[in-house]
């Protein structure tokens, strides 16, 4: 079975500092995509960053970057220069590249609070 | 503006009643999805549709039904057979099915009274 584990239900960080959210996953497949989504208090799910498993280079999007360790099945999200607007629930997710059961599998989320 | 709309934002239902949640997209996406979110949990897939007039069950389809008669629309009906329907429901779409990024609507909060 495919699983995604986010071991930190809640985290907080001071404004302007850096925080890392952890995510591990379990799959027997070799080709897949990984995602981080954020869900602010409005509850709209917003894509933060996407990583293709075949790419060794870690994805970055402005202040957001990932540390992808394929052998360890780890996909952590680093937020630099945290802003108050980053306060949200963050979900890690992955999807297989092929096969009939290609569906997005989500972790249970990490609630991040950015403190002023 | 291109995007995904869901209506209504809040919905109240009496036990034993069916209710339909609307999802519309103008992104010209082929694939659409319905997810359920409960407190403290991630999203779980209810149904998905790869293309018009086709849909497949997800992990928790029991008590739900869908239709896909138009590319833009993918309504979800919560039937009286759904034992615990109170939840937050999210609709998503993607250009193609599979690894294309899914984009989400604003969600509908359903409460059964």
Describe this structure in words.
The complex is a heterodimer of chains A (116) and B (113). Chain A has strands spanning 3-5, 10-14, 19-21, 24-26, 32-39, 46-52, 60-61, 64-69, 74-79, 88-96, 105-106, 110-115. Chain A is an all-beta fold and 116 residues long. In chain A, the strands form 3 sheets. In chain A, strands 2, 5, 6, 10, 11 and 12 form a 6-stranded mixed β-sheet that branches. In chain A, strands 3-9-8-7 form a 4-stranded antiparallel β-sheet, with no helix packed on it. In chain A, strands 1-4 form a two-stranded antiparallel ribbon. In chain A, strand 7 and strand 8 (64-69) form a beta hairpin. The model of chain A has no long low-confidence stretch (mean pLDDT 92). Chain B is an all-beta fold. In chain B, 0% of the residues lie in helices and 46% in strands. Chain B has strands at 4-7, 10-13, 19-25, 31-37, 43-49, 56-57, 64-66, 76-78, 87-94, 103-104, 108-112. In chain B, the strands form 2 sheets. In chain B, strands 2, 4, 5, 6, 9, 10 and 11 form a 7-stranded mixed β-sheet that branches.
What is the 3D form of chain B?
globular
Number of E-state strands of chain B: 11
Percentage of helical residues of chain A? under 10%
In N-to-C order, the SSE pattern of chain A is EEEEEEEEEEEE
Helix-strand makeup class of chain A: mainly beta
Strand content of chain A: over 45%
Q: Categorize the overall geometry of chain A.
A: globular
Q: What separation lies between the terminal Cα atoms of chain B?
A: 35 Å
Number of strand segments of chain A:
12
Largest two-chain interface: A-B, 26 and 23 residues
Overall mean pLDDT of chain A stands at: 92
The low-confidence parts of chain A are none
Helix content of chain B: under 10%
Strand content of chain B: over 45%
**Average of pLDDT of chain B:** 93
From the alpha carbons, calculate the radius of gyration of chain B and give it in angstroms: 13 Å
Low-confidence stretches of chain B: none
Radius of gyration of chain A over all CA atoms, rounded:
14 Å
